[in-house]
Every structure is written in C-alpha cells, then in structure tokens.
Amino acid sequence: MREPTPTEALTLVGRHASGDAIPERMHADVRLLGELLGQVLRESGSDGLFDDVERLRGATIRARVEGTPDAFAQAEQIADGFSVTRADEVARAFTCYFHLANLAEEHQRVRALRERDGRPDREDAGDSLAAAYLRLAAEVGDEQARARLKDLRFHPVFTAHPTEARRKAVASSIRRLAALLDAHDAAIPEGAERRRARRRLLEEVDTLWRTAPLRPHKPAPVDEVSAVTAVFDETLFTAVPHVYRRADDALQGADAGRAAPVVPPFVRLGTWVGGDRDGNPFVTASVTRQAAAIASEHALRALEAATARIGRTLTLDADDTPASDAVRALWRRYRDADQSGADEIAQHSPDEPHRRLVLLIARKLAATRTRNADLAYGDADELLADLRAVQESLAAAGAVRAAYGHLQQLIWQVESYGFHLAELEVRQHSAVHAKALAELDAGGERSAQTEEVLEVFRAIAHIQSRYGMRAAGRYIVSFTRSAADLAAVHRLAEYAAADGAPAPVLDVIPLFETFADLQAAPEALAETITLPAFAARLRETGNRLEVMLGYSDSSKDVGPVAATLALYEAQERIGAWAQSAGITLTLFHGRGGALGRGGGPANSAILAQPPHSVDGRFKLTEQGEVIFARYGEPAIAMRHIDQVAAATLLAWAPSVQQRNSRAAERFADIAEAMDASSRARFFELVHAPGFAPWFATVTPMEEIGRLALGSRPARRGLSVESLEDLRAIPWVFSWAQARINLAGWFGLGTALQAVGDLARLQDAYAHWPLLHTMIDNVAMGLAKTDDRIAERYLSLGDRDDLAALVRDELALTRDWVTRIKGVGDLLADKPILQRAVNLRSPYVDALSLLQLRALRALRAQGPDAPEPDPDQERLLLLAVSGVAAGLQNTG
C-alpha cells in the first residue's frame, strides 16, 4: 500500500477527525515546510532516514484513521524495530515537524487576525476591550464606566518555572522562519523573491534540523532573565501601546489621535525570574540584583531609542508651532547641563523647539542608562513630566495630532514600564522564614542560609533606591497558613536593617495553596491587617491588598474538581471579607499553562469568577511555553491582552456578577456533591499504598527531572516514596507525556456520576459559568489523551488495581462530558482547536511509541542499575521534548 504524502496525510487525518477543512493558505504553508523538511532529511540525514520517518508516519496515520488494534500494533512494531541511533534521528525529525506545524498554525492565526482587523464583516469584536466598555456603560452609565476603565489593571507575571521544553536556539530559529514565511507570502508567485525566500527557508530548516534539540545544561537564573526580557524587546514594548491605541481609536471615533486618550495604560508587567527562590537554591540576592539591572537596561535602551526616533520626526517649525514657556524653560535648563549635546542638536534643528527638547531628553535617557549622575533622570516620573510638557505645548500650539500620536504611545510606554520594565517579585517558603527567625531570635552565629535570607531584603532596598519604588517590593510567602507567617517577613526585614542598611518598602503577599489553607484564608487575612506593619502599609496604599491563590498545589492536594470548587469558594469569601473591611483587593492567580495547574482560556475563567473577586483587576502567573505562545508574536500578544482586559472590565458588570452569584447559589447542591465525591475518588488513587513509586514507574517523572528545562529543581528534596514534596509541574507534565493528562480531569467523572441527573447537569452547564468552564477545559484535556498509548504506560507498573482506577475514571469522565456537552466529539464545538489536536495526534503517537520503547528499556534495567543507559535516556528525553511540542503544553 502506498504511503500518503505529507499533504495527503494532513488532509486525510483532518477530514476523518473533524470534517473541518484546513484553510488553504495554512495547507500551503504546511505543505511547503513539510517538503523542505523532507528535502533536509534526504540531504542531511543518514542513509534511509527519510524512508524510515515516512514508514512510521504512515503507520501512525493509518492506525489513527482505521482505529484497529492491528494497525496500531504495526506502528508499534516499526518504532520498536529501529536501532537506538535511528530512533534518535526519527524522534528529532518528528520534533522538527511539530515546530514547523506549530509555526504554520501560528502564521495562519496571525494572518486571520490581520485580515479581519478593523473589518466589521470579518471581526467578532464581542470580546474586545472597546466592546466590553460599551456593554458596561449600557449597564452602569458612561460616567461610572469611565471611572472603572480608569482603574482597569491587567498584571501578567512572568515566571521561570521549568515548562519550556524548547531550547532558546530552537525558539530563535523558529522566529527567523516566521519572518521568512512572511517574506515568502509577500513575494510574487514564481518570482525571484519567492525563490529567494524558499531558498532561505530551506537554509533555516536545515539549521533547525542540525541544532541540538536538548539543552546540554540547565539554564542559570540569569539566562532565564535574558529569555524573558527578549519577549519585551521583540514584542511587548510596542505591542502593549498598540493595544491601548486600538481601544482608544474604537472609543474615540472621529476624535481618535487628536484628543487626549480615554484608555489608560492598564498593563503592568511583573516577573519572578531572578526573584523566585522558593525551592531554588540558585536564585540568590546577587541574582536578584542582576535581574533588576538587566531589566532596567532593556527598558532604558528601548525608551531611549523610541524617544530619539520620535524626536527626529518632530520637525515642526517654531513659527507654525511655537513652544510653550515650560518647554523653553526645560530646554534652557537641560542645555546648561549638557552644553555640547545641546549645541549639536540646535545646529541641526535651529527653529524646531519641540524636536530639540525631545532629542535632548533622549540623551538624558542615555545618561540614565549609563549612570551619569550629572545628566540622568532621578526616576521615570521626571521623564513623564517632561514628555507631558512637550505634549501640552504641542496641543496648545494646535499640533494635536503630533501631541496625541506617537508621543502619546511613548508616554504610555513610560507609564507601563517605567525605568524598571517589570516589577520584580520575591517569593520564599514560609518554612525558610521560620527557620531563619528561630536562629536569629536565639542569637549566636548565623548560618549561611539565614545570611542569604537577610541579604535578599537588602537587595530589595537597593533595587528600590536605584530603579524606583515600582521596581521591587512585593514579597510572596509560599504556603502561608497564618498571619504569623506574614509577620515573619517584616521581622526579618528589621533584622536585615539592624546594621544600618536601608529598610525596603514591602507589600507582603500571602500565597494560600493547600485546600485547608484556602478555607482558612479569610480568617488569616482578618488577623493580618491588624498587624502594625500591615496596617501602616494599608494606610500608605489606600487600603490596597494583594492575595495570591495557588492552583497547582491545591489541585495536587485534593484533585482538580475539588480544587476548582475550593478556589471559587475562597475567592467568594475573600472578596466578601474585603468588601466588608473596606479593602481594595487584587487576587493574584497562580495559574500554570496546563489544565491541571489552572490553565485554559483566561478570559472565560475571569468571567466565571464570583462577585468582587475581580473588580477590574486581574493578575496571574504566565510561565514557560505560555509566555512565548501568548506574547511571542505581536498580533497574538495584542489579541490576548485585549481579550483578557475586556473580560477583566466586563467582570465588573452587574449582570455578570449577578449571573455568577445566582448560579453558585442555585447549583450549590451540585457543587457539594461534586466536591465530596471527586475528592474521595482522588484520594482513593493517590493515597493508595505504593502510589508514588507506581506513578514514577508508569510515567517518565524521574527522567523529566533530568531534562534541562529550567534552573529550578523538580522536587523539594523528598524521594518518589512521597508526593508531598513533588512540585506540581512534573506532576502535570508526567501525566501529559503518558497521554493520560490525569492531573486535569481525574475525579470529574465520579463527581458527575454522583449528581447523576443529566438534565440538571446540562442545565448547570448552560447557566453556571464555573461548571461550563470546567467541562470545556476537561474536554480539551481529554482530547489530548489516547487510550492505546495510556494503556501501554499503565502496563509498565505492576499495580493492576491502580491502572484500572485510572482507566475506569477516564472512561466515566469522557462519557459524562460528551453527554453533558451533547456532542459526539469532545471538541465538536471548538473546530479550530479540534483541527489542531486531530492534525497533530498521529505524529504525537509516533513520538509516544519511541518514548515508550526507551522507557521500557530503562525500566528493564531495574532499580539497582548504577546508571541509566545513556542512549536510551537520550532517546526518551528527545521524545519528551517532541511530545511537548506536539501537545503544545508541558506544565
């Protein structure tokens, strides 16, 4: 039987699985990139590699299309028949394919966003910020809507949690390929530029193939800082003000660009990269200082370049656009401080006062970056004052478009990023604080760990004095259980300043993670705000308080269903407490990328939250592959920010709050039944004797710990005899690699079965946003499971009872979810996602089969083997990286 070509295979799988045709231009991109990869494999791979890749690819496609055990067994036989060296090459080839397929899909998404941008006939603007504002205004009136828009805040916090399986070199190659694909699109078919673009694409695909897919070493924390700041340089610095501009254009209509903006700079970036030391011994006070310095360097360079660029365009003659007294005074003051620079600028712009001043401001920014105290700005507020003086002068002279055009975007950038780029947050475990305090209170010699704890507070004070108060100051306490855990931070800060060092200004943030801690949160907070240090800080901030909720550990603690319900209840109770206490609350959501860690579409999750838990402020962690998926491409980043901002504003609408409140009350009995039954079912699995070592046997959990994903260790120190100290990321990642995704759904089938009333559950799905979001997210997770692959992973262990529990719950959950959704296919109502999953599945199957053969070989060595077989371990890790690329999520 002839194997299908790549194009035929994609068409066959797509039609069989979803009936939804691949867009023609995406089809062409996949065909082009697939042909180029095939050519590279023939030219650069070993003899016969291309044919072996095609054999396995054709077999996994046939197995998926035919759905027979014999067809799947044939694919498995091919994978098992390769030598280890050949299996290594085949795994690399499939991983390259996924990178190219992901690129083609992203390119199509960007293309679609560009084509429908601003065209009402093609654009669904129902979830845009402008549309959300109009809906809110219709409910509360324009005056109140404007006040709420003014207070809007979206605060993504980038973390260095180890979930990005791609090397930076691979990611950079993909970005170059994206630019080349754009050039290929723009060129005339059959023309010289098209041929040139194809040649360069082939060159870059060859580079991608030859780039080692695995990192040789774990990245250092400073490497992670550089990776995150690259997203700022390449995307966010310009994307964020474009989001403001688009919303402002939509709301201002004919006045857009010639009147003061109505949209505020509502985005604030946060970062844990270089500040999160919970369980990461490599993040030291020195690293935290370096992280702040690197971020500030990037922010100042970007502002300097933007200011100089705008200054060069302000060629407005003094006769037509005279400068205000304030602008002339600023010029004289700065000219006296920088005579040589001012003279050079004046020589080229003798009658262009606004241009002269803005170019001199750019020189002051350069001086700020190089720490030239005579010329440097003291802080970003000084720069803002100068830019606003220029803006007011232009507006007063009638040059309103110059005043509110690019200059306004620069002002938005300064307001959003300051001189620090992102607000650096420190996180540490409450147990570390307790240990350090006990040692300090006892007197005597201090340990190195305690000295390091104190040095962190000195680092925060240094960052605040050098880069501004917004640069650092949030201090998150992991595993907060009581007010005493938070009071410990202020006591430690006092110890750190006892030797004359300046004391930092701190906003101490509790992180409630376990089920019990979430339940006790309101009482702990009520006690916390009576502490003198907290009460004083609340007076300074206008009663603003931030509280963080942990999705990952709560899910691992009681299961995904009970955790979701507990988090909702915690938000409801904390929100009600804040209202009664006069607190302006910001809930900080510690969400991961995967469903088992609170992942899924953020905008639908926001609109499912209880009253007063959002109120125009949404803060969440963004990590690993999620950072690059959401913020790595400008058009996608702008769309994501716009959607989340729209949901954050709309969550304030009375209709949304009333809907969620009434639904929670109406379906409280369902929530109670689901909570108890799902938790019992989850405990039946994870509390079974011997579960932890069985989990480590049937998944590549231990091997994932050796994958150089990030600087942070995979465990806090305990062995696989206990799950208590296993981090949530490898817990989720391991189940995803086994194609089971248990962390995102286990217990839901039992919970729905406990309710038992299908008609009532369908009613709840239709009218209860929390359940609707939960069911849809689980459907996405289940769509990425595979019973055939999962069965083979489960068979690696010797516990048929535990394997049967997983199989039965998977079948029960899938049955109830499809019945409640009323569809035959889990993703029938999400055709784009359905197409993405179905097109990748046969290729993920191939990598899963290669991973399984390596895992079987490693398990066969037995626990007494001195070292794992390096060839088999490399094959397994290559397959792990490839499956992560194919599934597009890790932890």
The Cα radius of gyration reads: 28 Å
- Tally of extended strands? 8
Percent strand: 5-15%
End-to-end separation in angstroms reads 40 Å
Provide a count of the helices.
Answer: 40
Helix content: 55-70%
For this structure, the quaternary state is: single chain
Largest sheet: 8 strands, parallel, barrel
Structural class: mainly alpha
Low confidence ranges: 1-20, 594-599, 716-720
Instruction: Give the CA-based shape.
Output: globular
What would your notes on this structure say?
This protein has 891 residues and is mainly α. Among the domains are: 6-129 and 166-219, no CATH class; 664-887, no CATH class. 66% of the residues lie in helices and 6% in strands. An 8-stranded parallel β-barrel has the order 1-2-3-4-5-6-7-8, surrounded by 10 helices. It is globular, with a radius of gyration of 28 Å. The two termini are 40 Å apart.
Short descriptors:
single chain, 891 residues, mainly alpha, eight-stranded parallel beta barrel, 40 helices, disordered N terminus
Task: Summarize this entry quickly.
With 891 residues, the chain is mostly helical.
Strand and helix layout:
Layout (H helix, E strand, L loop, with lengths): L5 H12 L6 H21 L4 H18 L2 H13 L2 H33 L12 H12 L1 H9 L2 E7 L8 H19 L5 H19 L10 H32 L17 E2 L13 H29 L11 H13 L1 H10 L4 H17 L10 H17 L3 H4 L2 H12 L5 E7 H13 L5 H20 L4 E7 L4 H15 L9 E6 L2 H14 L3 H10 L2 E7 H8 L1 H22 L2 E7 L11 H5 L10 E7 H8 L2 H17 L3 H13 L1 H19 L4 H8 L2 H4 L23 H10 L4 H4 L2 H8 L2 H10 L1 H15 L3 H8 L5 H22 L9 H30 L9 H18 L4
Parallel strand pairs: 1-2, 1-8, 2-3, 3-4, 4-5, 5-6, 6-7, 7-8
Helix pairs in contact: 1-3, 1-39, 2-5, 2-9, 3-4, 3-39, 4-39, 5-8, 5-39, 5-40, 6-7, 6-27, 8-9, 10-11, 10-17, 10-27, 11-14, 11-17, 11-19, 12-13, 12-14, 12-15, 13-14, 14-15, 15-17, 18-20, 19-20, 20-21, 21-24, 23-24, 24-29, 29-34, 34-38, 35-36, 35-38, 36-38, 39-40
